[in-house]
Design goal:
By secondary structure, this protein is an alpha/beta fold. It has two domains: 188 residues, Glycogen Phosphorylase B (Rossmann fold); 179 residues, Glycogen Phosphorylase B (Rossmann fold, 3-Layer(aba) Sandwich). Helices cover 37% and strands 17% of the residues. The chain has 15 helices and 15 strands. The strands form three sheets. A seven-stranded parallel sheet has the order 3-2-1-4-5-6-7, sandwiched between helices. Strand 11, helix 10 and strand 12 form a beta-alpha-beta unit. Helix 1 crosses helix 14 and helix 7 packs across helix 12.
């Protein structure tokens, strides 16, 4: 298998998982056994140029977010590029925040598999693991129930593709127990490689800056975080005040959210709205900070931003709920934890990080070590092995394994980085 297609949101883009798609493509491009990668990406309305990832990588922008015809355009692109296999980098809202385009897009991997294109899915979340009442469906109980019912059909159909990997053990448990899936695997999120090439700035050399990054407006909101910073600053001297830098963009379901907040707080010089964080800015964004805040109302999958903070040695503050419990207990990441939806508890976590520098540095060092264990190169290697099994019709050997989870072993809270061979299941 020398030529593969990767279907993903891809930078420059506001699409979810575009950063993950970038690093995944880079990992495949670095392999000597891959000659060509066709990125089948979302269309981008801005004016930034395409990234130059070398002669191996060709980007074809063929589908639009919330288009019911996204799957058709993807299948057409797969046919024209003559890829030997297709890997989809997805989450439940990759193709839309409206039910019909979102569901139709998610059926595409199963169709491409049926059309004789070996197809695999990296699935970053599952509807069953999401609290729909905290998403953009919060105002409609009927829509929540319809989505919950339809999700079974959609997920069952997605499993008709060659294979599906998920990034958290709890997701694999759902696929195993509810769907009896024999082609589902747990492959860790993986760390982005950029940080390994540069010195991680010690926390004592960083200013009193805190960062947060994401797509805001639904279950990721900023009112509590901003309120916490302003409340703390009201009791601090000018040279002790905390600066909050907000990176990212609006969630597609809440356009104008950040613009409205920025206007409300334009007179507060300690609240900075950075906007979209380009790939080349990610390092400086995180290494300016003593802490990264993740104040979510709910969770929808393993956080890519949390993994980015980890590799740059920036400790995190996050509520112990949902998927944050998974990354703590099973991946070994550590942070300053606080009670969900509680601004006072968040304030305590912030001050603990700023005052207890020894603990903060210990947490940062732990997370850097964890991140070095499972790199995107490891993830790409496993995904390619699975894709080759689908192509060579040897996948039944994997389906018949007693334990269908590819679990990277942990040693003292640090992933060993062991890469399974073509016939091995790591348990």
């Amino acid at each position: 298998m020398k030529t593969i297609a990767i279907v993903t949101a891809f930078p420059p883009s506001a699409g979810s998982l575009n950063e993950y798609g970038f690093h995944l493509v880079n990992a495949f491009a670095g392999r000597s056994d891959i000659e060509k990668i066709i990125v089948i990406a979302d269309k981008y309305e801005g004016h930034m140029p395409e990234l130059d990832l070398g002669p191996k990588v060709e980007v074809r922008r063929v589908w639009r977010f919330n288009s019911p015809f996204a799957g058709l355009y993807i299948l057409r692109a797969l046919k024209s590029c003559k890829a030997e296999g297709a890997l989809y980098n997805l989450q439940t809202a990759s193709f839309g925040d409206s039910e019909i385009p979102a569901a139709l897009g998610l059926l595409t991997p199963a169709i491409s598999q049926k059309l004789s294109v070996p197809s695999g899915i990296i699935m970053h979340n599952l509807v069953e693991a999401v609290d729909l009442s905290k998403t953009n469906l919060a105002s409609s109980l009927l829509r929540q129930k319809l989505v919950a019912c339809a999700s079974y059909f959609v997920t069952k159909t997605m499993l008709v593709s060659g294979f599906m990997t998920v990034t958290l053990d709890s997701f694999w448990d759902i696929l195993d127990e509810k769907y009896k899936a024999k082609n589902a695997f747990m492959v860790p999120h993986g760390s982005f490689p950029t940080a390994s090439k540069e010195r991680v700035t010690p926390l004592e050399d960083r200013g009193r800056t805190i960062v947060t990054m994401g797509k805001f407006g639904t279950y990721k909101r900023l009112e509590r975080t901003i309120g916490a910073i302003q409340n703390l600053n009201s009791a601090l001297n000018d040279d002790e005040k905390i600066k909050l830098v907000i990176g990212g963009s609006d969630h597609p379901a809440t356009p104008g959210y950040l613009e409205t907040l920025a206007a409300e707080h334009q007179l507060d010089n300690n609240i900075v709205f950075h906007g979209y964080v380009a790939e080349e800015e990610v390092s400086s964004f995180f290494t300016q900070a003593k802490l990264a805040i993740f104040d979510y109302d709910s969770t929808t999958g393993s956080s890519g931003v949390l993994h980015q903070a980890a590799i740059y040695g920036t400790p995190a503050a996050y509520p112990m709920m949902g998927d944050f419990i998974d990354v703590t207990e099973r991946e070994g990441l550590r942070g300053f934890n606080f009670k969900p939806l509680d601004q006072s508890a968040l304030e305590d976590a912030i001050m603990k990080c700023l005052s207890d520098t020894q603990t903060a540095q210990s947490l940062a060092d732990n997370n850097v070590d964890i991140s070095k264990g499972v790199t995107m190169n490891t993830v790409a290697s496993i995904q390619l092995q699975l894709l080759r099994k689908v192509k060579t019709k040897k996948f039944n050997k994997v389906r018949q394994a007693k334990n269908s989870a590819l679990r990277i072993q942990q040693n003292h809270h640090s992933f060993s980085g062991h890469v399974p061979t073509s016939s091995q299941i790591v348990t």
